[in-house]
Amino acid sequence: MLNVVLFGPPGAGKGTQAEFLVNSYQLIHLSTGDLLRSELASETELGLEAKTYMEKGELVPDAVVIGMIKNKIASISDAKGFVFDGFPRTAEQANALDTVLNENNIPISGMLSLEVEKQELVNRLLNRGKDSGRADDQDQSVIENRINVYNEKTAPLIEYYKKQDKHFGIDGMGSIEEIAERLKAVISSI
Q: Residue 41 and residue 173: Cα distance in Å, rounded?
């Protein structure tokens, strides 16, 4: 079973490359945003609990998100693997995810970390903002703040996976196809 954490700063191309991984390896894409929306729409117990935090503008606690991931994994018995996108974001979350996956004997195979130069990230996000209309992708100062927050709070997660020899840095510069080929090469070595 192939279980990967797709990692990188905003604008690195995680969504695009997650789609490539799902299609190429028949993996299940586990995006925490999608999981939250699904649980909310289904009005599950975890979804209703998450809603109480979201309505106050607070982050949904890790335990609730992990519960959603655990339920999703349990509901798919024939999966060839998972692409985790947007989670984990901290060492505590990674540890909790490891616990859930190890209980099911399906550990993380590796963290695929897309590495992209800051100016390229800004350019990609500004272009995405023009195409998608997303307000958070149209203001350069907001974009730069998001990248800084990633560097301060999320990038340290790389060390967690390096200690397990599961971190794989991937050059995220170039065409979508070139990056996909680099991902493929790393996956074949895992």
A: 37
pLDDT at site 54: 84
Question: DSSP letters along 68-123, please?
Answer: HHHHHHHH-TT-SEEEEES---SHHHHHHHHHHHHHTT----EEEEEE--HHHHHH
Domain ranges of the chain: 2-189
CA–CA dist 37, 52 (Å, integer) = 14
Predicted confidence (pLDDT) per residue in 77-125, tens digit: 889 999 999 889 889 999 999 999 999 899 999 999 999 999 999 999 9
Tokens in use for 35? 């999981």
What fold characterizes domain 2-189?
Answer: Rossmann fold (3.40.50)
This prediction has a pTM of: 0.89
Gyration radius from the chain CA atoms: 17
In the chain, the amino acid numbered 56 is: K
Q: Is the peptide bond before 156 cis (omega within 30 degrees of 0)?
A: no
**CA separation (Å) from 134 to 17, 42, 115, 143, 176?**
20, 26, 23, 11, 21
Residue 169's DSSP bridge partners are: 113
d(CA 190, CA 186): 7
